[in-house]
Amino acid sequence: MTMISNTRSAGADPMTAGAESLPARLTHWARTRGAARALTFVDYSSDPAGADTSLTWRELDDKVTAVAAWCQRRARRGDRAAVLVEQSAEYVIAFLGALRAGLVAVPVFEPSPLPGHLSRLAAVLADCDPALILTTRRQTDAVDEFLIERDLAGPQLVAVDMVPDAVYEPVALKPDDLAYLQYTSGSTRNPAGVVITHGNVAAAATQTVRAYEGTPGGAVVSWLPLFHDMGLVVGIAAPLMGGLSSTLMDPIAFLTRPVRWLELMAASGAAITVAPNFAYGYTAARTTDEDMDGLRLDDVALFGDGSEPIVPAIVDSFYARFASCGARPTMFRQGYGLAEAVLLVSSSPAGLPPKARTFDRAGLADGEAIEVASGSTLVSAGQPLDQLVRVVDPHTHTVLPDGRVGEIWTSGPNVCLGYWGKDDGESAAVFRAEPLDEGGRPVEPYPGCVGWLRTGDLGVLIDGDLFVTGRLKDLIIVDGRNHYPQDVEYTAQNAHPAIRRHAVAAFSVTGEQGEYAVVVAERARQTTSAELDSAEVTAAVRSAVSSAHGLAVRAVVLIEPGELPRTSSGKVRRAECRTRYTDGDLGAIN
User: Which residues form the AMP-dependent synthetase/ligase domain (predicted)?
Assistant: First the structure.
């Protein structure tokens, strides 16, 4: 792939986007705040109360340097180093060690029995062709067996928790040098490796720190997977750029007992956390009154919400549940971002409750945001962060005025170069697009940047706020009318108590008589297969969707809990669900 620089070198201010690499920032904090706590991992696997492992800035810097020294003797600068480490402090050390050695890190995950993970891991490794695989002593045998089984033997394994001290030869890292490949979660296509430079991640991490008002000595708490873009930036990159301590836990520990997340937030004082929207509803539903005994959230700095459409009812349920613990709507910060922009594109301002507006559904589908008393309620994703955002007609590439729905385009120092292994023309169409003003003239990108990123997401700008309406490729188009799948899914999941919440996929399929709508829904766990009346549920879904959206649902498919295809971050894979439906591979409950 031909690489084209997306940014010019930045100035000397260490908090200026692109000015420093993450390893350089680590060295800076090791020298200036060496004895302060940098990283804590809380392990709940052996102790339900949690066992802490902490490192100071100086200790973390020393361990990262040891891994870098070991790696640079076994790989050449620019080689890929895949990180196959369980969620732990060692994951952070492995990732930063690869960067410090001048390698291109590939944050992935250790071999896991979870559905689809092994195939996805094999596809990622085959695509990036790593020279090294960084893992831990505990995982070495499992990783080795996995590589042999998948015919991927060849990369050298490095157990980062076993490397001895060695002489490190400093590597000068420039903003335009490649830092890592962030493989997308693949909710609408096969995973692709986003090429991220040191300048890109420094810019994105700086934007995140500024947006969330982080200061040196502050705290971040995260359970998000470190191989995911949000988990990596929130848990590693932003704390490094801002000098914040990071407290991490395993996603399974959160899912098993979500109040642990809130307990760590309470213990960390004025802490920052970010999670997908579903996590807030999940935590509210799975936290008992006993769990809340003594829990105080008064001092929490903020709860960030992103990665998926924000459902107002979920936000409301969280704050209603934890109001007695001191949680307030003004703690909530909603945002929008994607892997191709490293993380954030926009974020809401501090100190204000979520800004919701209700629009006419038919108007949105026709490309116009018309405010009404009852319709589709959207939560603002805030304003752009040190970058430019425009809403563009995806067909003519003309910038649309406020109030019109189109594709979200952005330009800034955080926008990446392209996709790994793709030809330059293919990457340029996505990462270096050229919008036009109403007179047909090119719109200038962010200063120092080349072109605009086409996000593939639909949205509308109103009074400076960005409202995300859906995915361009996920639109359900039946009888010439557009319908947003998340609206249909929300209606379907509330149509009958036998449908599991947040486990519905709606999409369109091409048949002999044109496009038709399909809804796939998981059975609620409290309803057994024997108790399920499929005909009754189907009728309820069809009636509810027809009444709310004027959309006839041709097929309603009920499946078992946990069977809906999802990405590594929990998003429903509508495209894969559509493929499995057309191939007859969905295990429908009869």
Answer: 27-420
